[in-house]
Design brief:
With 206 residues, the protein is an all-alpha fold. Helix content is 64%, strand content 2%. It is built from 5 helices and 2 strands. Strands 1-2 form a two-stranded antiparallel sheet.
Length: 206
């Protein structure tokens, strides 16, 4: 029985697309990140008093991204992603891996730096973080208690969050450009790994 089970497992074909769970997490996180980018630009144009509601939504979405990313990492650790096409050059595979690693860094570091930034702000006592105006969210742990140190920490977190945002813009642009290249120039199935409906029929790319 063991030999039979082993032979069946060995004969199981490798996935050509991501699992439905990985695809759902990918697009939920992508939608949340793009929404938060839009919110950040929007509330930056508002007077201070009008920023409270969109900032609260921005914080809620950011924490959601953090939690979804942790789930996505856990899923990725126990579910091998589909392989990249053999036609891709080695440097392209390295670039794709690096791009994904930067994305994971951003999906963790941006919410964490934002959480730390608002937690170090004196406004947290006036406008505590409420996820979607319903669930209380704690302040970031291990912040300094000295007022001067807390002020300096907030400036550091704010600058870090801003720099990460610009890195996110560049990474997203590169990611989209690479996807368009694979879909319309290389005409391979890289994008179809995440959007199975785009999978090409054999011979369609020739």
């Amino acid at each position: 029985m063991t030999a039979t089970a082993h032979s069946v497992g060995a004969a199981r074909p490798q996935r050509s697309t991501y699992s439905s769970v990985a695809i759902t997490l990918h697009w939920l996180i992508a939608l949340a990140m793009l929404t938060n980018i839009g919110l950040a630009w929007y509330f930056g144009t508002l007077p201070k008093a009008a920023q409270v509601a969109p900032v609260q939504l921005h914080k809620s979405i950011g924490i959601t991204v953090l939690l979804l990313t942790l789930i996505r990492i856990g899923w990725r650790l126990v579910n091998t992603p589909p392989p990249l096409p053999a036609t891709m050059h080695t440097w392209e595979k390295w670039a794709a891996t690096a791009n994904h690693l930067v994305f994971y860094l951003l999906m963790l570091a941006m919410p964490l730096s934002g959480w730390a930034m608002v937690s170090a702000s004196p406004l947290i006592k006036v406008h505590p973080t409420m996820l979607y105006w319903t669930i209380p969210w704690p302040t970031y742990p291990l912040l300094p208690t000295d007022p001067d140190q807390l002020h300096d920490a907030r400036k550091l977190f704010s600058k870090t969050h801003e720099l990460l945002a610009w890195l996110a813009y560049a990474t997203i642009a590169l990611h989209v450009a690479a996807a368009l290249k694979h879909q319309f120039i290389d005409r391979d199935d890289v994008v179809a790994r995440m959007i199975p409906l785009l999978r090409r029929k054999k011979g369609a790319a020739s």
